[in-house]
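Design request, tokens follow.
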């Protein structure tokens, strides 16, 4: 709890007293916004005791807030993940590092016992000062660690708010640090339909003994409609909502068209009039796409990304790589995988598969793709796509790349963990 101990004078008995935050001559907050991957180019809004405003995250998710002289803490921070619109919050009672992640959202929710998006609209900063003591934050973190302990181990993150974080990016998916890998695992292990109920539970459940342990047999969580939903069992793997996109990567001529398809699973006994998927172009100059997934490439050569997002579970999305150039005027090379997110037990093996199309009148002795594991400790994979998982629980990444058209590739998220039951 470095940031809080600095404010409270170390670990003495006075740590349980409210943090006194006098005016300072200058105020600087810096951190990283991430959900396992950096949240890039997103507004970070802040409301402090004296001073409000906004800044933006960089490509690696980092941000910095510099307030003028005579500003005063505490501050409440908010950002949104552009991929799904979900908001993340953090509470700062001292200058220095303050991150914005799902863990800071959980911690803030547990401390303030309220929905943080609502709280941010009209924050009670006196309540923040009173609540954010070293003792209270330690207690809340311990409670959250226990709730998540059936899914992952967060003990290596000493302070959810202020432990420095280096996030992976689209350009460098293996570049994240240990904390980032934990966020990766959290993002994949926690079924999309359980995240909001978990936050509601953290806001409303008291005493702590009433908090369930996610992933443990018999775990149940109550929804807003008073119905109960399982938060344990193989369902977290087998029936968790998912979305995949095909093709996963391709080369197109400028101005040409391509239809993308999304594959999703459906909740039991639910019928939709249409597939609940929204199509987007990640880059502002990356072409256009219709509501049915028909994509028109831009006239400018470059590398772009098409995103498919579930409307019923908006935290779930996946992207396809689009290379626009004139290198293959009479052929559109494609590369796809069945699953972009793969669950496997530690030390287990799994066969991964890729599908490609072939140029006219060309025959290969073997499928021209190369498999590789991005992380050095992420297991191993052979030429045929047979993956051997490491014995250590975590989130890793496997890359499959076309040998004949090496500019296109797909990266799979590999979640190595034990089934909840």
């Amino acid at each position: 709890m470095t940031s809080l101990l600095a404010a409270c004078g170390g670990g003495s008995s006075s740590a349980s007293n409210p943090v006194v935050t006098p005016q300072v001559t200058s105020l600087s907050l810096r951190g990283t916004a991430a959900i396992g991957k950096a949240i890039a180019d997103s507004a970070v809004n802040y409301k402090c005791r004296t001073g409000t405003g906004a800044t933006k995250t960089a490509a690696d998710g980092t941000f910095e807030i510099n307030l003028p002289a005579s500003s005063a803490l505490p501050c409440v921070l908010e950002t949104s993940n552009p991929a799904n619109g979900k908001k993340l919050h953090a509470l700062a009672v001292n200058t220095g590092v303050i991150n914005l992640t799902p863990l800071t959202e959980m911690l803030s929710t547990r401390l303030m016992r309220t929905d943080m998006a609502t709280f941010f609209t009209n924050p009670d900063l006196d309540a923040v000062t009173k609540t954010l003591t070293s003792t209270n934050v330690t207690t809340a973190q311990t409670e959250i660690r226990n709730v998540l302990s059936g899914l992952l181990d967060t003990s290596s993150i000493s302070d959810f708010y202020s432990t420095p974080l280096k996030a992976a990016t689209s350009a460098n998916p293996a570049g994240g640090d240990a904390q980032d890998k934990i966020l990766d695992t959290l993002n994949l292990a926690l079924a999309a339909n359980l995240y909001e109920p978990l936050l509601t539970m953290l806001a409303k459940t008291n005493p702590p003994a009433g908090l369930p342990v996610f992933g443990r047999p018999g775990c149940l969580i109550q929804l807003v409609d008073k119905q109960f939903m399982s938060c344990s069992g193989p369902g977290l793997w087998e029936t968790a909502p998912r979305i995949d996109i095909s093709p996963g990567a391709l080369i197109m001529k400028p101005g040409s068209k391509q239809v993308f398809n999304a594959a999703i699973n459906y909740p039991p006994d639910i019928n939709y009039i249409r597939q609940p998927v929204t199509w987007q172009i990640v880059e502002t100059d990356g072409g256009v796409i219709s509501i049915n997934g028909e994509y028109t490439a831009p006239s400018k050569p470059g590398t772009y990304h098409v995103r498919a997002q579930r409307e019923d579970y908006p935290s779930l999305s996946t992207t396809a790589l689009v290379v626009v150039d004139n290198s293959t005027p009479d052929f559109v090379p494609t590369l796809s995988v069945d699953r972009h997110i793969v669950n496997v037990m530690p030390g287990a093996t799994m066969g991964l598969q890729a599908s490609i199309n072939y140029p006219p009148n060309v025959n290969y002795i073997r499928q021209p793709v190369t498999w590789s594991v991005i992380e050095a400790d992420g297991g191993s994979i052979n030429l045929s796509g047979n993956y051997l998982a490491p014995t250590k629980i975590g989130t890793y990444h496997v890359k499959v790349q076309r040998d004949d058209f090496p500019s296109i590739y797909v990266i799979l998220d590999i979640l190595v963990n034990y089934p909840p039951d």
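Comment from the thread starter after seeing the answer: thanks! The radius of gyration is 23 Å.
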